[in-house]
Amino acid sequence: MLWAALLLPPAAPEAAGGPLAPQPLPGQPAAAPPPTLDPRLGVATWALQFSPRVALREEAVLMEVEASVRLFGGRRALRDRVVQEGAELGVAAVAWAPNSLAAQALARAGVENGFKRPLEALLDGLPMAVLSAVQPHHETLARLGCRLLGDVRRLPRGGLGRRFDAALLTALDQAYGLRPEAHEWLALPETFHGRLELMSRVEMAPALLFGARRLLLQLCGWLAARHAGVTAFSLHWVHDSMRARDVGPGGQLAIRTAEPTRALEHLCRLLAEHLARLQLPAPVGELRLQADEVHPLEEATASLLPDDDARREVLPLVLERLAARLGPERVLRPVLTADHRLEWMQMWQPAPATRATSARRSAAAVGAAAQAAASLPQPTWVLPQPVRLATRGHRPLYQGLLQLLSGPHRVEGGWWHRLAPSAVAAPIVHPGAHAHPLTTDPAPATAHLQRDYWLAVSEHAGLLWIYQERLASDETAWYLHGVFA
To answer: What is the dihedral of CA 315, 317, 318, 323, to 10 degrees?
Structure first.
């Protein structure tokens, strides 16, 4: 078995409570006073991504990861990740051993690798104070000449059992692997509510990222354990009690993503863009992180050979960062819609919200509209507004007389599409054409249209996409709507 003991300082200046100890958010009434923050809970939440066998004992978080070694790339890769991310969470020491009690003893002594030598030889050379069961009898054992665990273990077992309690012998046997251990495993919570008390009061919003990163690291571990990703999370902060009277108790910042993700660096960059535009009315002493929307996340298949594309930043992540920096209304992308009217076949939407919006639409309806549109000629360029064409003998003119090649293709509908009068633009009148008197009337309340589209050719302009529209008194008018490449 492969056990890891993550040792936290016994009196940490800052404490982080994970979702195992949820707290009420600012502005919400609390049913009871909040309990004391426990730094182990945040580390335990993060550790659940490596193994479901996670337990707490005294100042240590213990986890058994033998079954997860290959999943995380081997012992060396797993060790490097646990040490690196654990240091960000405030872990003071990490040790590995065949059992949890030996790993905890080695971590207290500052020995990381419990496999480089036989376990008995390693434990015999440790101070006897590294074993908690020795603490009540430390003075007595010291008067007997014991300094190391090996000295205690060499005492006669009969006399040791009669003079001291049975817990000492049980702990010795468990540490040396002679007796099995029993643990109470932590359960993965259904929701995430992380809490962090800052070391000092923070007055600048960008400086909150240092503490928020620790909470995001716990969130990513919780998401990995649930095989899920987050699309919305909120960061709450509590102002210092010595704030001004006109300042509220705290504030919050909501962050949304286009796709479910648990990429730590991307979430930190996204949060940093929002914090850079924020000003705090008072110093902040506490942070709380909450996962608002969580969705299942499809795992990426690992590649046998190095994949260069996997190391590149994908487009949706870049668009989210740009939208956070410039504003969502300034980063747009085209979206296909289920409509056969040329003006409404696509529309521009904020890039980060495009995928979430398109997921709510019916994919079958969009596919049917695209298939119907594919049966008609589609121009390469569509004019922002149709151009009214002049006519000669009921034939349209555009840089000469137009020759109709195919048609008519009837497009009718839009009675359900209601528009404000200012949203409907009047067609542009081409020089030489006369505007119909009815075009000066206010725009209709709906975007209903009835057109006959034709594919026409001009001697100078090439292939054109024009349509004929019926006006009042059985009169018709021709309009240029698109140009083919």
So the answer is: 120
pLDDT by residue for the chain (485 residues), tens only, comes to 899 999 998 754 344 445 554 444 444 444 333 434 688 899 999 999 999 999 999 999 999 999 999 999 999 999 999 999 999 999 999 999 999 999 999 999 999 999 999 999 999 999 999 999 998 999 999 998 999 999 999 998 888 888 888 889 999 999 999 999 999 999 988 999 999 988 888 889 999 999 999 999 999 999 999 999 999 999 999 988 777 777 888 889 999 887 889 999 989 998 998 898 888 888 898 999 999 999 998 766 655 555 555 555 566 767 777 777 777 777 887 777 777 777 777 777 777 654 544 555 545 445 555 565 556 778 888 888 888 998 888 888 888 888 888 878 888 877 777 776 555 455 555 554 544 444 444 445 777 788 888 899 988 888 998 898 877 666 788 999 888 87
Q: Which helix (H) or strand (E) holds 29?
A: none
**262 to 81, 234, 268: CA distances (angstroms):** 16, 14, 11
DSSP 110-165: T--BSSSS-HHHHHHTSBGGGSGGGGGGHHHHHHTT--BHHHHHTS-HHHHHHHS-
Q: Which among 202, 209, 5 is positioned nearest to 88, based on CA atoms?
A: 209
* Cα distances (Å, whole numbers) of residue 270 to 177, 209, 319, 321, 326: 47, 11, 10, 6, 12
DSSP string over 379-423: -SEEEEEEEEPEEETTEEESSSB-EEEEEEEEEEE-TT-B--GGG
Residue 137 CA to residue 129 CA, distance in Å, equals: 10
Angle, helices 208-226 vs 75-88, to 10°: value is 140
What are the φ and ψ backbone dihedral angles of 286, each rounded to 5 degrees? -150, 145
